[in-house]
């Protein structure tokens, strides 16, 4: 894109008009000198435009919220015309850096490379395109101004911070991993505890036919009773119309709570189901710890732009859950959802609420109401340590 200096354009037009109506060698000489300078400036600028190259050595970067990043970009003048004045505007999203990047000014001689460094602190999770760089330059006479935009496929992936919980203070009807529970629904017929004589009322499914045939009497197996723990995490991404900066911070805190809880559960052999509704509905399930990075990737992409309140989302998804499931709801708003949580709890599901707020010291009557009805409620402020709030203990 090129723009001509208005003063230079007016001057050339005046010289042309004077040469056309006045004539004379002197006036024509001025006109041709002016025209020559304009053409020379244009050709020089065109050469710079075609030979100014943006050198990219890395196309993907990964970081964690709170990391300080330095993005380096090289500009190479491959032509024979020097760049006297190069203005570079490499702005970054406010959500990422929190502040606008300052413009840089460079002069580049032929066959010379200059390096631009963008240093900033990663404020929020997300996937950001950082390869868009706008440059402006002028010729030596300042007649033409050129604008060149580099649009490289360079991305920065910022993951939410994962806190290593030593303990998770969440009540579970099913215990971590595969453990004994007292409920016939979890009888494991593939695992025999011991053998005993048949008693009237025993199920024929438990009959040990090999021993029965050998001993000449009926024998049955006492089977192991096991359960595989199931943790269902719901992250509230409804757009509550909060102030932009507060909304970013609360969304970040919610993501940190989610990934920290999921990491802890997976590392303790629990089956985890994650559900969220932002731009679209996301469902992800896993049991092995090596699947944790998939949760990180998904949660990093989410943003609080949902159109479904958390209560409606849970009502929709809760029908798919087991009768004794444990549900962890991470939300910045419980005023409208508290009554829905109370009604759903009567179905037998264990509810845990992680309430996100600006200041955990501010009281809320809905929190007390839920606690009085045997809900486990954690209040996480923006400045609170997630490790201490969720578990009371943490690993250093």
Structure, briefly:
The chain is α/β, with parallel strands linked by helices and 396 residues long. It has 3 domains: 159 residues, Immunoglobulin-like (Sandwich), CATH 2.60.40; 50 residues, no CATH class; 162 residues, Rossmann fold (3-Layer(aba) Sandwich).
Report on the architecture of this protein.
- With 396 residues, the protein is of the alpha/beta class.
- It has three domains: 159 residues, Immunoglobulin-like (Sandwich); 50 residues, no CATH class; 162 residues, Rossmann fold (3-Layer(aba) Sandwich).
- A six-stranded mixed β-sheet has the order 17-16-15-18-19-20, with helices on both faces. Strands 1-10-9-5-6 form a five-stranded antiparallel β-sheet. The chain has a three-stranded antiparallel β-sheet with strand order 2-4-7.
- It is elongated.
As for the CATH topology of the largest domain, it is Rossmann fold
CATH architecture descriptor name of the largest domain: 3-Layer(aba) Sandwich
Beta-strand portion reads 25-35%
Structural class: alpha/beta
Low-confidence stretches: 176-189, 224-228
Write the CATH homologous superfamily of the largest domain: von Willebrand factor, type A domain
Q: Please report the number of helical segments.
A: 10
Instruction: Identify the CATH class of the largest domain.
Output: Alpha Beta
Distance between the termini: 55 Å
Structurally, the number of domains stands at 3
Give the SSE string.
EHHEEEEHEEEEEEEEHEEHEEHHEHEHEH
Mean pLDDT metric? 81
How much helix, percentage-wise, in residues? Answer: 25-40%
What is the general shape? elongated
Q: What's the gyration radius in Å?
A: 34 Å
Assembly category: single chain
Count of β-strands? 20
Strand order of the largest sheet: 17-16-15-18-19-20
Main pleated sheet: 6 strands, mixed
